Amino acid sequence: MIEDVNDIDAQRIQEFLKITFESMDQGITIYDGDFKLVAWNDRYAAMGITPRKHLQYGANLLNLYLDFAKEGIFGPGDPEELAAQRVQAMRDGPLIKNELLTPPTGRTIRIRRFRLPNGGVCATFNDVTEEMQVEVQLRQSQKMDAIGKLTGGVAHDFNNVLAIITGSLELIIDKSKDETIARIAREALETSDRGARLTHRLLAFARQQPLEPKIINPGALFTGLLDMLRQLLGEPIDVELVCDAGLWLCEVDPNQLEHVVINLVVNARDSMPDGGKLTIEASNARVDDDYAETVEISPGQYVCLAVTDTGYGMEQKVIETAFDPFFTTKQAGHGTGLGLSMAHGFVKQSGGHIKIYSEVNQGTTVKIYLPRAGGHQIDLIDQTPVRDEVSTGRKVILVVEDDNKLRSVVVSQIESLGYETLEAADGAEGLAVIEKNGRVDLLLTDVVLPGGMSGRELSTRVNEAHPDIPVVFMSGYTENSIIHHGRLDSDVVLLQKPFRKADLSRTLRRVLYQD
Questions:
Q1: Exposure on the CB side of residue 472, measured as CA atoms within 13 A
Q2: Separation in Å, CA 200 to CA 154, 338, 472
Q3: Cβ neighbours of residue 468 closer than 8 Å, sequence gap 6 or more
Q4: Closest to 498 (Cα-Cα) out of 209, 171, 156
Q5: What is the chain's mean pLDDT, rounded?
Q6: What is the DSSP letter of 60?
Q7: Residue predicted with more confidence, 423 or 5
Q8: Cβ contact 35:62 at 8 Å
Q9: How many whole angstroms separate alpha carbon 117 and alpha carbon 29?
């Protein structure tokens, strides 16, 4: 009530209040003591919450709630009872002052209610759909980070165990004269390799795999994969590749990107058992500030890669958990549930963004945004032949590894290749061995070592005193001193645990003889 003003002032104030009422960002409704609509603003009408037949002076709140109940907005139960209960609760009980509802528009609305002196109710309505999406993404990101840290630690220990198993099995195969034992060892080695691939996927999900980015044209990479993808999909599925003219370059690990694309294509194939169409697109894209605010990505220029199928599609609740590790909709024994989580980890580690768009029975599109790169494209094809066996000339290799069993296996592998070996359990012991022996042709060291000196620090001290000694690092975990921003340092040669004897042989020859 406004007192002590003349009629002209009251009219002006009334006009001012009306302008304020209509200009508010919130939707507003006012119901009288009989719960009949007496006022609403244009913002509320534009939100589409209330059907037009209920948006008129004198409309009864009970009838609106009845329609809402029929739409299932208030949950299961008899619509008339649900509507009557809500109106009765508003009349006799305390107001639900803060409520989230999803009306037929599909938007999420936050409702706040205030009791009026005449027994009526004033309600404000805020569209919080985008806000809720950001909160969901934040919770998902926090959950993924927590799982990633746990996963990385487990993968590190498991890689050391696998390295011992793999190396021991290869030594058994090399030395066994019993074909039955050798066959059993080979079968066990295949299983060990499966475990190694699993840990690599876990590290990819955890964003802790060592990436070796190169500046590439993703369209050229897809073109090179096309024949293989057609064979992978089979004849019932048509494949189309669409690349923008003038496609930008991006700096990304091409091998990991290939793995991601193959995983997406396999998922698409499995969703189209009766055939369909798969489209792979590569286009230039610009991410603006508004979109960047809703996802974990910076504004700027990107290359957008999209894989689209015409398969089953996904429900929203499936999309929300699709990137979780070991989540899968496939039958038991069909897939590990790590394909999408690995893709998510790789894309995030590469500074990009991945998003799923899908509707049931309409198909699925997975979009990947990778940052645009400057510089010049490199040739991905290496024509240099790789030789597994070496002629060593009795080179001396110092192995520094704190796990006694693993060190013993690695030393045996190296000696079986014809090299001489020296051993140390930590950095200080490694320095002492070099000074005592007087000759070391290569240092092979684990990255994480006890005693306060890491493999990187050991390498630095060795190179200061003996700049002619090359270094090869071993690691089953990448959150360490040779990895920065998910990328290997440019001067680093890394053997990722668990490695096969052939990998060890090639790496030693390449470093020692510059092959």
A1: 21
A2: 12, 10, 20
A3: none
A4: 156
A5: 79
A6: B
A7: 423
A8: yes
A9: 15
